[in-house]
């Protein structure tokens, strides 16, 4: 099978790594990719938001499957363009990707499907905003309706900050605050059959102890020793299957990866948000634990034959990933700094620990930073404590001027306080 992966972050590196280890995959391409992905896939330049360009590239390469990593191409209809060229795509249509592209659409689908989520109002005028903020009280949760690359959500005790964010957006969703730990649960679906993956937890704040600004994600771990063993079954029944069924009923079936961002509240599990693609950095730890070769699972989802897929097989091992971000991330990250220590990790820590690249590029013989999140250092171990130790041992070998990382990824879950 020839596979083309679209994107160039650590999530796509994790996908490419798994696909490169799959004996069914005879050729692996990634566009545009990054310096790390180049070690496991052949890179091609492409404008990932241009459906015609991606379809032409997939056709030229004779791809049997295209896997779209990020949300923006999906919302822009890249999946539709490739499917129209007759090539199977892992990733939803633009219409179904509205589940991530519009918070108001997601709320409407959840209401119709009876999926538990925060109560909310969709507001377009200052009067509606004030009424909604009053109705829920602090802490205020104000979400830009559209895609905002993680920057659209403000959670604050400060009513003026909440109001200011709401007024800066054309359309906002204002909702009830959900208290409780967050869980990311991914499911692969062909629009009918739904196959859940293992749950993971992401660390969204920049600094230790969940302080500092929201980021794209500073680390993740799986499994979740503290979670109810019935969580996956419960979310399948209450959230994932009803959502997939509702989208099919509407004539916009969702195929690809359905990501449920959940809050485990005192009153039960609630959906915080849906995403229409694999999460980053959770994918790095979920795929580290998956033993089943990935390509046929993704192809069966793309082809509507997921029911034929045997049950997924998981390692008992735990996985931890620690994100190394550039100086000044998430505000105005500095790029172009050389990264050293990659060869040492490969020599000393593999195969249990390895470095997935996010924002990197090659400059001559050097690998330099090229984005906010630069590397996702991933490790497996017999439990979270061991996986975390191996990940941080590898992190300590990496040198990137001014870089930052959290030191508490998975610490609490590993019983370390
Ligand atoms: P979202 O983009 O919807 O995932 O929101 C980003 C982050 O904001 C989430 O991961 C939560 O940490 C927080 N958040 C979003 N909605 C709520 C809510 N209703 N209650 C509490 N926190 C929330
Ligand atoms: N880890 C959060 C996300 O992928 O949206």
- Rg (CA only): 20 Å
Low-confidence stretches: none
The CATH H-level homologous superfamily of the largest domain: ATP-grasp fold, B domain
- The strand line-up of the biggest sheet is 3-2-1-4-5
Q: Categorize the overall geometry.
A: globular
Total E-strand runs: 24
Cofactor: Mn(2+); Mg(2+)
Family: Belongs to the GARS family.
Enzyme class: ligase
Pathway: Purine metabolism; IMP biosynthesis via de novo pathway; N(1)-(5-phospho-D-ribosyl)glycinamide from 5-phospho-alpha-D-ribose 1-diphosphate: step 2/2
Please describe what this structure looks like.
With 417 residues, this protein is α+β, with helices and mostly antiparallel strands. It is built from 13 helices and 24 strands. The protein has helices at residues 10-20, 51-61, 71-75, 78-84, 98-101, 103-113, 126-136, 159-168, 231-249, 282-289, 294-303, 342-348, 384-397, and strands at residues 2-7, 27-32, 42-43, 65-68, 89-90, 120-123, 140-144, 153-156, 172-175, 182-189, 194-196, 201-202, 205-207, 211-214, 219-222, 256-265, 268-275, 318-325, 338-340, 353-357, 360-363, 366-369, 373-381, 399-400. The N and C termini lie far apart (46 Å). The relative contact order is 0.13. Glycine (GLY) is lined by residues 202, 217, 275, 279-280, 282. Its cofactor is Mn(2+); Mg(2+). Keywords: ATP-binding, Ligase, Nucleotide-binding, Purine biosynthesis.
Give the structure's gist in a few sentences.
Pfam families: GARS_A (PF01071), GARS_C (PF02843), GARS_N (PF02844). This protein is α+β, with helices and mostly antiparallel strands and 417 residues long.
């Amino acid at each position: 099978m020839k596979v083309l992966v679209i994107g160039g972050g650590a999530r796509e590196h994790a996908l490419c790594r798994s696909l490169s280890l799959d004996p069914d995959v005879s050729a692996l391409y990634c566009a545009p990719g990054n310096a790390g992905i180049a070690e496991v896939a052949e890179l091609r330049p492409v404008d990932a938001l241009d459906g015609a360009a991606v379809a032409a590239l997939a056709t030229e390469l004779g791809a049997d499957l295209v896997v779209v990593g990020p949300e923006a191409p999906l919302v822009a209809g890249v999946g539709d363009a490739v499917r129209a060229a007759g090539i199977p795509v892992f990733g939803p249509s633009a219409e179904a990707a509205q589940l991530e592209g519009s918070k108001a659409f997601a709320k409407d689908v959840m209401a119709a499907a009876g999926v538990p989520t925060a109560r909310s109002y969709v507001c377009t005028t200052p009067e509606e905003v004030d009424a909604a903020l009053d109705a829920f009280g602090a802490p205020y949760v104000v979400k830009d309706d559209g895609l905002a690359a993680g920057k659209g959500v403000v959670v604050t005790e400060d009513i003026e900050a909440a109001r200011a964010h709401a007024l800066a957006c054309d359309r906002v969703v204002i909702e009830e605050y959900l208290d409780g730990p967050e869980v990311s649960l991914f499911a692969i679906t062909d629009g009918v059959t739904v196959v859940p993956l293992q749950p993971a937890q992401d660390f969204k704040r920049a600094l230790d102890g969940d302080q500092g600004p929201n980021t794209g994600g500073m680390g993740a771990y799986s499994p979740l020793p503290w979670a109810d063993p019935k969580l996956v079954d419960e979310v399948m029944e209450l959230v994932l299957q009803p959502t997939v069924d509702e989208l099919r009923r509407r004539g916009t079936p969702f195929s690809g990866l359905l990501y449920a961002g959940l809050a485990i509240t005192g009153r039960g599990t609630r959906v915080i948000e849906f995403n229409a693609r694999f999460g980053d950095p959770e994918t790095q730890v979920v795929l580290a634990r998956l033993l089943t070769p990935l390509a046929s699972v993704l192809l069966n989802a793309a082809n509507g034959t997921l029911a034929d897929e045997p049950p997924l097989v998981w390692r008992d091992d735990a996985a931890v990933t620690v994100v190394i971000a550039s100086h000044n991330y998430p505000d105005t990250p500095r790029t172009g700094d050389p990264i050293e220590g990659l060869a040492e990790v490969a020599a000393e820590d593999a195969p249990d620990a390895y470095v997935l690249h996010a924002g990197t590029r090659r400059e001559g013989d050097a690998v330099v930073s090229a984005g906010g999140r630069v590397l996702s250092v991933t490790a497996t171990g017999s439990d979270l404590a061991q996986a975390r130790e191996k990940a941080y041992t590898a992190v300590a070998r990496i040198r990137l001027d001014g870089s930052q990382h959290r030191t508490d990824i998975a610490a609490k879950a590993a019983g370390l306080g």
